[in-house]
Amino acid sequence: MWLRRCVAEEDFLASNFATDDHRESTYSPPSSPSLLFPFADNGTFITESLSSRDNGLDSDVSFETPSRLLEIKDDATSIKLVETNGREIPYAALSYCWGKDDVGGWKTTMATLGSHKTVGLNVSLLPKTLQHSLRITRSLDISYIWIDALCIIQDSSEDWAKEAAKMAGVYFGSVVTIAASGARSWADGCFNKNSRRVFERGSYSNYTNTYFHGAWERYHGIFSGVAYSGLVLDSPLAKRGWTFQEHRLPRRTLYFTSDQLFWECQHCRMGEDNFPMKQKLGGHPILDSKHLTSDEAARLWYLGVVEDYSRRQLTYATDKLVAVSALAKSAHQRRPQPYIAGLWKDSILHGLMWRREGQGTKHAFQSFPSWSWATQNSAIQYLWTN
């Protein structure tokens, strides 16, 4: 039977995780949970996924670890910035939309770096999304988290460039990525208005577009049952350019949407309302050698990535290639070809066959060659043939 505990906004998410012996992991699951994990029907599978280092990936791709992490105290009321010095430390990563206000000067800068490492930081000074992510992380018995605004020195272009180059490793190497999908800014938080709702389970009726583990099901009542595609793929988070690779790179993600919680890993997707969904197949065709069937498949994958990414918004047009560089770097480890202004040398003819969708404009600056898709301030489409 599906088990679910309705919890308050400030009181969320934990589970009785079992250790996975597939591969030794430095992550130790909690032995005595304080709360009930929403996906209890599939609890064993999820706990094994969280405990496994590679989550079933046949990958020899290697990445650098982040330079800094935030250590969360047991009560999640204070944090301290720590240098990893190359150590393998189990951590969560946060994917979220920034906001405009920086009240209290909580970000890590050259001026605050020292105090963040020695004295630490009171969690109450942080925006709500960051506060919630710390509580979620601790409820999973993970003591460290990576958050860009605090783990990268914000007023140091040198540090920013250094850490941006490690972005693939940051998200791929995390135990789990927490995605604040329903939050338009860091002030909105992770939890949604439905945190106390209950619903009843019924038999399959009209939902013919989804399939999960051979069972057709639906829920009647309070939950709307809005699909994953609407709550995750069409969320505020999914419209931002920088979060594109944060969606593609993690091995495991918990999506906190405006309606419910979703779990995603290399093996499946599942929703908190238990609506059946298609199994996720081949989430990392570049990182997982099982899905690298040919150069043609890799080429089509990358062109599809560029199309999807071009539809997202960036605050600074100069970030066009930087914000997708982690994916390019991971692809380069599998396909060691020169990467030129967003195109691969061995398939540059295919890479040039793009057109602008709609009116659109070109960027005013001359950082990229005119033939690159990165010059466009609009979505592009590739003229490929299957």
TrEMBL record:
It comes from the Eukaryota. It holds the Pfam family HET. Signal peptide: none annotated. Residues 91-246 form the Heterokaryon incompatibility domain. PANTHER family: DOMAIN PROTEIN, PUTATIVE-RELATED, TOL. This is Heterokaryon incompatibility protein-domain-containing protein.
